[in-house]
Design goal:
2 domains, 4-stranded antiparallel β-sheet, alpha/beta, disordered C terminus
């Protein structure tokens, strides 16, 4: 397995938020992390990206512990989630941001790389605009370009198509489909868009209250729970009798 999360527990002060979670992602595989708000999805992404240290367990990339080689691992794992989006410099232009991170990772042919990603992610019209002045959807695409600037082996995505209009969202999903096939990249995707997950992902990990409560391919989960689609499976597994969903 390219990426392994082995039995991690994560706590904030004395409050435990992740309980004995294990995840395995092979090369070229896209895995979805689903669950209601507060279920621990972003915490897991932060643990893999070494922004949070698990209390117990370990995270491995190519059988090497991520926390032992954080600088090297940052060149192998592309990250586009909430905490990472804040690391884009709001006072720089989009092109300047991509240039900074490209130089940080010693990307060869950086100008070509920026031009290529700008075209593929439709950034050309605001490439020279101040990043902090962009819409949420535009910032999402900038964050995705930043995550891909160094051709990572693993991509961590947190709601990559949120705030996008339907046409642009569909375009980005098509881009991710093609990019995964072309680069054989592994992806862990946290999303609330069930149609997106059914379309893109090879397997699904369903979370609730900081632990994984079910997993399988989208089709297998739909059949297993006797539902018509993944959204109905999500509601069955995560809804409590006293909650409105």
């Amino acid at each position: 397995m390219l990426l392994q999360v082995n039995n991690i527990d994560v706590s904030y002060d004395e409050f435990q938020v992740i309980w004995n979670v294990s995840i395995s992602i092979d090369k070229g595989e896209m895995v979805a992390l689903l669950g209601p708000n507060g279920s621990g999805k972003s915490t897991i992404l932060n643990s893999i990206s070494n922004l949070i240290q698990p209390k117990n367990g370990e995270v491995l990339f190519n059988n090497e512990k991520i926390h032992l080689s954080p600088t090297y691992m940052r060149t192998k794992i592309g990250i586009s989630h909430v905490l990472e989006r804040r690391r884009v410099f709001p006072f720089l232009t989009v092109k300047q941001n991509l240039t900074v991170y490209g130089k940080l990772y010693s990307v060869k042919d950086l100008n070509y790389k920026i031009e290529d990603l700008s075209q593929k992610l439709r950034l050309e019209n605001f490439l020279n605009r101040i990043t902090g002045e962009l819409s949420s959807g535009q910032k999402n695409r900038v964050s995705l370009a930043k995550a891909l600037i160094n051709d990572p082996s693993v991509l961590l995505l947190d709601e990559p198509t949120s705030s996008l209009d339907p046409e642009t969202g569909d375009y980005v999903r098509s881009f991710l489909e093609n990019y995964k096939k072309e680069k054989k990249i592994s992806v862990l995707l946290a999303s609330h868009n069930m149609r997106e997950v059914e379309r893109l992902c090879d397997s699904v990990l369903m979370m609730k209250d900081g632990t994984i409560i079910d997993q399988g391919t989208p089709k297998n989960l739909i059949n297993k729970h006797g539902r018509d689609n993944l959204e109905e499976v999500f509601l069955k597994l995560t809804r409590n009798s006293n909650e409105l969903w």
